[in-house]
Amino acid sequence: MDDLPLSDLDAFAAIARERSFRAAARKRGVSPSSLSDSLRRLEERLGVRLLNRTTRSVTPTEAGERLLERLAPALGEVASALGQLDNFRDSPAGTLRLNVPTIAAKLFMSDFANRFLLRYPQITLEVIAEDSFIDVLAAGYDAGIRYDERLERDMIAVPIGPRRQRYITAASPGYLERRGVPQHPKELLGHDCIRHRFLSGATVGWEFERGEERLVISPSGPLVANAIEMEVSAAIAGLGVIRTFEEALAPAIARGELVPVLEEWVTEFSGPFLYYASRRHMPSALRAFVDFVKREQRLSDVNPAATR
Question: For residue 70, with 0-12 CB atoms within 10 Å meaning exposed, 13-18 middle and 19 or more buried, which class applies?
Fold first, then answer.
């Protein structure tokens, strides 16, 4: 085992987690063929098949499952140990991998990331925007951004971005002229509605609140998508009623392309959190990012316009 390349073990772990050569290659910034070569070398060296692969799927063998179970924590420790070397540099350096919801990437992460990288030019930031509900640490990320402070043991949450957000409902003037303006959420069951579907395949009901009154409906309509831009475009085109983040609809409302409806039934909720594992030795790039997030949040609390 003395000459067993660590990079080949890391490549196997990435493929096994993603169950896909293409997805693993995309997240690692390499070609699928290079990962395939790494896996072939590793299996030949170990003399055991680690992954079953067909043209449609990649699944770990029993041996692969056992290896991944023990290997993932070890690779994390190696990455953490290497990250500690950054503490000897004049300024934080290294690669920081974040997994964020697509709405966070659209609404505030671009500006946030730009300011962070200008301050820490020796850090490389990798941001993967997706709406899958995954264990970001097991998938090889340093930290993640998620809504709701639902944390596993040994996880830490830090507020990031807007602290309160709202879901609102809107439709185009043309649609409302044709179909009428709904006066109660239950009336949406008789309307065309534009819905969001997560990459997991799940669609969620539309939740409404007015004072102490709460209800959830499952509307239907001509479009179900996992891209907010496409959903907003469909609403502007008059295809139906949309309900989503206020920030995503505000520009179209300001231009008169969409009109708010059911304004008494706005749902308010907590903003997102950055979460990461509690550990004694934190890579310098992650430490710099956490400190930057905390600083920005303090500035925002004192002066909401300071971080815009």
Answer: exposed
Determine, yes or no, domain membership for 190: yes
Question: Is the torsion defined by CA of 19, 20, 21, 23 positive or negative?
Answer: negative
> Is-contact 96 123, C-beta < 8 A?
yes
* Residue 233 maps to a domain: yes
What is the rounded distance in angstroms from the CA atom of residue 184 to the CA atom of residue 261? 9
Distance between CA atoms of residues 291 and 308, nearest Å: 18
Domain span including residue 204: 164-270
3-class DSSP state of 301: helix
Count CA atoms closer than 13 A to 91's CA, side-chain side.
Answer: 9
Report the candidate in 159, 219, 154, 226 with the shortest Cα–Cα distance to residue 188. 219
pLDDT digits (tens, 9 = 90+) for 16-56: 888 888 888 877 778 888 888 999 999 988 889 999 988 77
Indicate which CATH number applies to the domain containing 20: 1.10.10.10
> Are residues 129 and 27 in contact, defined by beta-carbon separation less than 8 angstroms?
no
Which among 208, 248, 254 has a CA at the least distance from the CA of 232?
A: 248
Task: State how far the Cα of 147 lies from the Cα of 274, in Å rounded to an integer.
Answer: 9
High-pLDDT (> 70) share of the chain, %: 87
